[in-house]
Amino acid sequence: MRRATVNFVVDLAGFMIFLSLIFTGCIIKYILPSGTGGEGRELSGGVGRESIKDFFSLTRHQWGDIHYTLAIIFAVIIILHILLHFGWVKRYLANL
Question: How confident is the prediction for the chain on average, in pLDDT?
Answer without folding.
Answer: 86
